[in-house]
Design a protein that fits this description.
There is one protein chain. The chain is α/β, with parallel strands linked by helices and 339 residues long. Helix 3 packs across helix 4 and helix 5 runs parallel beside helix 9. The structure holds flavin-adenine dinucleotide. The site of flavin-adenine dinucleotide (FAD) has 30 residues, from helix 6, helix 7, strand 16 and helix 9. Flavin-adenine dinucleotide binds next to helix 6, helix 7, strand 16 and helix 9.
Length: 339
């Protein structure tokens, strides 16, 4: 393999039922930065059926080129079909960087593609940059239980591959004209290429609110004390039109569902306001929320690590502070309605 033959930045544009996943637009923004720095094209690989109409959205968010890989066998994700078409395209066109969103699909596809291409993959990256000297991709991710950040390079093999968790990068704001080159590709896929049959797609019965989308998060930790006390957080969230989330300690105690966990093994969030109630601010928790625009911490201990990242720190018992906060918000609201 000649490294020099590999050129261009690719992202995997993941769609489900014809809708692009937000993480694809987030990695497109980072891909744009890298492509501009390298002076190369940014390409989005978009497998599916009847999906070429999504190209405009990808162009609008930074793609120069969209490879719409259309086939009935790509309508729903299967490891075999997606791996085959993606690997064939990479082998033919040789991108030097390939970024994939770390969704359930991306976490399945990325390692499979990397293994077949005999290259490396750094999973769950929180930072991507170019080495100023070599232009190698610097892929940063938490290591050793999140206690340190490791920057990994893939020196010998191409493409340099990484997966990035949803919410780590911001979606670029309408940066482009929405124009680019759309290539429609009909892959050579046969039934025998795919070893799984999708018999039925069952959706979760319980509607889960995506905390990654929330503008205001009221988050509870071990300091909340018990499941029943979470009602206080729901009351505060109701007043603020927010959503309740939690630390891993709260999730492990069964006080809130895992879907609402913030942090390294939960979700990465960046709301406008993050209210941490009875959360100490362990590094694994901070990894998921420290990019929030404004952080309010309510904690009994002045020296809790969360206080270091907080824009406003309230030292006190949350069971006393939150009811007072709710009362104050109600008072302000009633003043606004009487004015
Ligand atoms: P604690 O650390 O016990 O903190 C409780 C806080 O509440 C204290 O600061 C205390 O002063 C305060 N408090 C107590 N009572 C009150 C009160 N009445 N009023 C106000 N304050 C009060 N953690 C995550 O959150 N998310 C993750 O994704 C995650 N992933 C992890 C991955 C790995 C590999 C590992 C090893 C750990 C991970 N953790 C994660 C766990 C993490 O290390 C911490 O254990 C966890 O975040 C602690 O949760 P906590 O802050 O709620 O509890």
């Amino acid at each position: 393999m000649e490294k020099e033959e590999y050129k261009g930045v690719w992202i995997f544009a993941e769609q489900r039922e014809g809708a692009l996943q937000k993480v694809s637009l987030q990695i497109l923004g980072k891909g744009r930065e890298l492509a501009d720095e390298l002076g190369v094209e940014l390409t989005a690989v978009l497998p599916g059926e009847g999906i070429k109409g999504l190209a405009g959205e990808l162009f609008a968010h930074g793609a120069d080129r969209v490879l719409a890989v259309e086939h009935a066998f790509l309508k729903n994700y299967t490891t075999d079909a997606y791996t085959k078409v993606v690997c064939e395209l990479v082998n033919e066109r040789k991108p030097e960087i390939f970024i994939i969103g770390a969704t359930n699909i991306g976490r399945d596809l990325g390692p499979r593609v990397a293994a077949r291409l005999e290259t490396g993959l750094t999973a769950d990256c929180t930072g991507l940059a170019l080495c100023p000297d070599t232009a190698n991709l610097l892929m940063t991710r938490p290591a050793f239980g999140g206690n340190l950040m490791a920057t990994i390079i893939c020196q010998e093999h191409r493409p340099q591959m990484s997966t990035v968790r949803p919410g780590v990068f911001e979606i670029p704001q309408g940066c482009r004209t929405g124009k680019g080159i759309l290539e429609e590709i009909i892959p050579d896929l046969m039934p025998e290429d795919i070893r799984t049959d999708i018999v039925e797609i069952a959706k979760a019965a319980k509607q889960v609110v995506d905390i990654g989308e929330a503008k205001i998060l009221v988050s509870g930790g071990r300091g909340v004390g018990c499941k029943e006390n979470f009602s206080l957080l729901y009351d505060l969230a109701d007043e603020l039109n927010g959503v309740v989330s939690g630390s891993r300690a709260a999730v492990d105690a069964g006080w809130i569902d895992k879907a609402y966990q913030v942090g390294q093994t939960g979700k990465t969030v960046r709301p406008q306001v993050y209210i941490a109630c009875g959360i100490s601010g362990a590094i694994q928790h901070l990894a998921g929320m420290q990019e929030s625009d404004y952080i309010i911490a309510i904690n009994k201990q002045i020296d809790a690590p969360i206080m270091q990242v907080a824009n406003s720190a309230v030292v006190g018992d949350m069971h006393k502070v939150i009811p007072e906060l709710i009362a104050k918000i109600k008072e302000i609201k009633s003043m606004e309605t009487t004015c």
